[in-house]
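Practice record 12: protein with adenosine-5'-triphosphate.
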Amino acid sequence: MIQIPRGTQDILPKDSHKWQFIEERLHAIAKNYNYKEIRTPAFESTELFVRGVGGSTDIVNKEMYTFKDKGDRSLTLKPEGTAPVVRSYIENKMQHDVVQPTKVYYMDPMFRYERKQKGRYRQFVQFGIEAIGVEDPLIDVEVLSMLMHIYQSFGLKDLKLYINSIGDQDSRAAYNEALVDHFRPSITEFCTDCQVRIDTNPMRILDCKKDRDHELIRTAPRMYDYLNEESKAYFEEVKSNLDAIGIGYEIDYNLVRGLDYYTHTAFEVMSDAEGFGAITTLCGGGRYNGLLEMLDGPHETGIGFALSIERLLLALEAEGIEIPEPEGIDLYICALDEKATEKASHIVHTLRTKGISCDIDYKRRKLKAQMKDADRKGAAYTIVLGGEELSTGNVELKHMGSGESKTVHLDELHTLLEEK
Ligand code: ATP
Ligand code: MG
């Protein structure tokens, strides 16, 4: 038997309403904040991620689904959404669009070759936003407020927003030196990845999952102490405006994010809920000021975040929050014989074109089984069609909730249901 690829999942018909509920909510909130959807391809040139995400990241080093197409081009299934959005921004010259800044969102499957564990899939759906073309602490605050709004709108409470500033390029150069001095003498005590990171991207040692409990991580110099005046002022303005609109946060001086292109504001949302499992990060994001130029684009900056729906669902489950059951159909037509079944199939055809959701029993079961089927399908109303109904055209329209029924003509069915 052929099985589903490792690390992927089927969203079964009994569960898909949960996804639709979340997706609809996300589209609506994006609209609230005036972000427009952007859809980029499922695969891109490998080069985009190597340059845009960075060669020292786990994503590029270990996790990409890269393949050659028949024209010998190296392509990669997208592991994240920012680089593709920025590629599209540059290619479509969005810096010249009349509407500025560019505020976009995406909701797309992403692909990463990862070790399978709870909350970690090889294909997962990310909802993410990017605000490109403006560098202002207030837009950072907008992005953070939207993010928290999303989680809170589902009723989640056990959340923590962690923020940090990783400063601008200048601040980081000094900080990186301090980190190298701090870690170099004992680097052999760290994992092999960190032994490479000390030369390629020392800040990422702070982000290492294997070495997170090492004493030197706790005592490492803090980025905050290396921020220049500008970076400090930027961070202060983000914080004071979060305070002003009542968004709670904690500062995590070790929060650096895994990608190379971040500057200034970096953030993560974690779930505190018991039973969430080992991975508690719900969302990550930050400001990127060098990315566009790194991809040969204009001198513009951006900020964004990405969350996965899979982990949002886990958080809902951990907090015992249930997604409403989907609505059933408006009408189920039971039929007593062959002729009635045929007629029922014609009636549902007409009703459906009038916007009424309805169904019949194609398995041609007995009446009792049909009623059960109507119940399972959540029918608001049922009618039973037999010889008499077919000759007079009158049927008993039964409301399943109250058990009440009234006589109506088949031709009136659609108007009655519209009134419901
Ligand atoms: P992690 O530290 O968990 O590996 P990450 O730093 O790789 O996360 P990002 O690249 O920032 O994650 O992606 C943003 C969000 O996407 C994460 O916070 C998480 O909610 C989600 N995410 C990342 N990888 C996966 C995955 N393999 N399966 C499901 N969701 C994921
Ligand atoms: Mg990861």
